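S1.2 Input.
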Amino acid sequence: MSELQYEYLGTLTCGVGEAQVVGKTPKGVRRIMPLTGGRFEGPKLNGEVLPFGADWILIRSDGLIELDVRATIKTDDGEIIYAQYKGIYDPSRKYFCTVPIFETSSEKYSWLNKSIYVGLGSAEPGKVIYKIYQII
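S1.3 Output.
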């Protein structure tokens, strides 16, 4: 078995709007955070995070937050990429880790459909920032 190898894919910066609070459900406290748009910048991929999509977060009874995000990226050369990621945020440790999946019909970016990615994130007032790495 070989060592884990990865390379930097890019940084996703996205604004988030005011939470829609669903409230306490059988699974935990549910909030929906709308995405207000942003940028993806990297060596092989650059584009706009379109201003729709959301993070359907679940605040669990143990204090951890489950992330469930869907977004669309329009590349600078006009291609469309669907991004979905799940992850965990631990507010006590500032631990923010996701596993993005990308889908596209673009031949130019079809390599995105064939890999696993990991994102390490942070939150600032009104936005989130992820550094995303491709597992190779």
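S1.4 Remarks. The two ends are 14 Å apart (CA to CA).
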